[in-house]
Specification:
- InterPro entries: AfumC-like_glycosyl_Trfase (IPR008441), Nucleotide-diphossugar_trans (IPR029044).
- GO terms for molecular function: glycosyltransferase activity.
- By secondary structure, the protein is α/β, with parallel strands linked by helices.
- It has a 5-stranded mixed beta sheet with strand order 2-1-3-5-4, sandwiched between helices.
- It is globular.
- It is built from 6 helices and 5 strands.
- The chain has one domain.
């Protein structure tokens, strides 16, 4: 049996991580290593497997990335209104008058691009498993001012002539023209 290293023994508990994820984290001009996600009813009200995914992101990415899970819970420190100005989203979003079985997913669709444009970073759907560092996956190339890359995403091909961008993972530089509102 392996002896735990100091690094492994100093890991935060699940409760510590979930508690930290429930706090407001302001975005600074110098920091673009943001991971953005959304659960309309708040992370603590999401299925446990989603919470585990997000906790694994925090552990994998470490302190150089700031993980935020936004929501639409009144009074929440992570309410979407803390990060996106009202004029960037339709009234149906703010008034909570969207209807149908997929309101949470449609709300998520509305906020991902404004967040990436305003602040930069990576959008991950809470159901996404992260098996490697975002730095190695795409961020080092996006962050390098010498590269022409502004956006990274997965392309899903449905045949030789049909493909689309998978919107559950989108990485972008702040202010990217490709993401421009």
């Amino acid at each position: 049996m392996a002896t735990p290293t100091k690094e492994k023994s100093n890991r935060f508990t699940d409760a510590d991580i979930l508690s930290d994820l429930q706090t407001y984290k302001p975005v600074t001009d110098s920091h673009t290593r943001n991971v953005w996600a959304f659960w309309d009813k708040g992370l603590s009200n999401s299925p446990e497997w989603n919470q585990r995914n997000v906790m694994s992101w925090v552990r994998r990415l470490g302190p150089t990335w700031t993980v935020r899970v936004l929501d639409l819970v009144e009074g929440s420190p992570n309410h979407v209104s803390q990060y996106i100005p009202r004029e960037l989203l339709p009234d149906v979003f703010w008034n909570r008058t969207m209807t149908g079985p997929h309101v949470g997913q449609h709300s998520s669709d509305l906020i991902r691009l404004p967040l990436l444009y305003l602040y930069g970073g990576v959008w991950l759907d809470v159901g996404m498993l992260l098996f490697r560092s975002l730095d190695a996956l795409c961020w080092n190339a996006l962050e390098d001012p010498e590269t022409p890359y502004e956006v990274a995403a997965f392309r899903v091909s449905m045949g030789p002539e049909l493909s689309f961008l998978f919107n559950g993972f989108i990485a972008a530089r702040r202010g990217s023209l490709c993401i421009n509102l």
